[in-house]
Amino acid sequence: MTDNVVKKPVKITETVIRDAHQSLIATRMTLDEMLPILKTMDEVGYYSVEAWGGATFDSCLRFLDEDPWERLRVIRREMPNTKLQMLFRGQNMLGYRHYADDVVEYFVQKSVANGIDILRIFDALNDPRNLKAAIDAAKKEKAHVQVAMSYTTGPVFDLDYYVNYAKTIRDMGADSICIKDMAALITPYMAYDLTKALKEAVPELPVQLHTHYTSGLACMALMKAVEAGVDVIDTAMSPLALGTSHAPTESMVAALQGTPYDTGLDLKKLNEVRDFFNTLRQKYLASGQLDPKVMGVDVNALLYQVPGGMLSNLLGQLKQAGKEELFDEVLAEVPRVREDAGFPPLVTPSSQIVGTQAVFNVLTGERYKTVTKEFKGVVKGEYGQTPVPIDPEFRKKIIGDEEPILCRPADLLPPEMDKLREEASKWAQSEEDVLSYAQFGQVAVKFFENRRKKQAGVDADHLDATNKVHPA
């Protein structure tokens, strides 16, 4: 390292309480499990902690019997000195369909009010029109708007594509840019070239790199991005790093110590955090929640551009059908379906849509004999504009005589909040409950009903205690 390099400390976003466990154990870490270490994490000096969004909301309601809003409020209380960040799927928010603008705006408002500082907003198709409502709402709430570009490879995804996208999102009001490499496709030298190109094209915006370890390239890609001038990198504490998760926080901090990029984070304090999560890791291994299979390097990520979580999802679908032996055929079909669908980046929800259609194509023995409603929606334009135009003949084969949607899909949606409030009024105890219902409908209702039963049980216990006759 030469002495004349200008000091440029790299900042760290810690993912261990969101994306790391989403990637490794299907987002099953509970608030009770993470609670004891939050105050210590608050003392580390991270740039931010990714704490919410993504699949956490769904998982809290569906599997953990937790209120996701209460989770956010508790994390905010325990970590007053650290910026909290969330992943937000543009017009999809945290659900799996497009929502009307008034719902998006209100969800952003309540997210910030409950403790979010940074919203990482992205769209599965990289369609900027699907980002506008969320960006405008976050700006109104004076939150930090980080717009993420879904990184992928294909015929149009060159440096010019990403540079032009960066300029577009800068003009829309982004405060920073994230290269979101959800499928672990970015190579070290591409990470260098892309970071450098973005820093030159939009020098006023900080650039952050988010990549997964699935293909085994993450640490090298992060190092090359650092050399190219990246401002922030995403990492995970080592017990929940590697595999389909991220590069280890402590390793990256150690690698940069004593260089112009030194993070300044305290390895001793990080070691306390590591010890805590190591105990949790052992618990997850013992219970079978953490499958050693997801901890390895999988070159299929590079061959088929399939994110780690999608691999397990595809295998699960084939197991249900008793056709595990067709796994390789399905993996080979995924890129073909993706090409037919206009080369969408494979990220939620497009990864599930393309993957499920590939499974049907292989199981039925005839391509597109059975077409899912969601795949038809992508081809029709319900999710926005695909990176590459869909062949008109293929579109007609899939949607028949239906008219394709060429405008911003949300322009076709009337305001929804009043209707949602009315529908949720039977169960909702707060405005946040209405937003939970908006995202997950009957899943949220089941949570509300369980909550009501527990509250009734507590009230009954309290009544029993107060009505007891005490001896004189």
Describe this structure as you would to a colleague.
The chain is of the alpha/beta class and 472 residues long. Helices cover 49% and strands 9% of the residues. An 8-stranded parallel beta barrel has the order 1-2-3-4-5-6-7-8, surrounded by 5 helices. Strand 6, helix 9 and strand 7 (207-211) form a beta-alpha-beta unit. Helix 4 runs parallel beside helix 20 (431-467) and helix 9 runs parallel beside helix 10.
Radius of gyration: 23 Å
Unreliable parts: none
Number of strands: 8
Provide mean pLDDT, rounded: 93
End-to-end Cα distance: 82 Å
Q: Strand order within the widest sheet?
A: 1-2-3-4-5-6-7-8
Q: What is the 3D form?
A: globular
Strand content: 5-15%
Number of helices: 20
The SS-based structural class is: alpha/beta
- How would you characterize the largest beta sheet? 8 strands, parallel, barrel
Order of helices and strands: EHHHEHHEHEHEHEHEHEHHHHHHHHHH
Query: Helical proportion?
Result: 40-55%
Quick description:
With 472 residues, the protein is of the alpha/beta class.
Using brief descriptors, characterize the structure shown.
20 helices, 472 residues, alpha/beta, eight-stranded parallel β-barrel
How would you summarize the topology of this molecule?
Layout: E1 11-14, H1 19-25, H2 31-34, H3 38-42, E2 48-53, H4 56-64, H5 68-78, E3 83-88, H6 101-113, E4 118-121, H7 132-140, E5 144-150, H8 159-171, E6 176-181, H9 188-201, E7 207-211, H10 218-227, E8 232-235, H11 249-256, H12 267-287, H13 300-304, H14 308-320, H15 327-340, H16 350-364, H17 373-380, H18 392-399, H19 417-424, H20 431-467
Parallel strand pairs: 1-2, 1-8, 2-3, 3-4, 4-5, 5-6, 6-7, 7-8
Helix pairs in contact: 4-20, 6-7, 8-9, 9-10, 11-12, 14-16, 15-16, 19-20
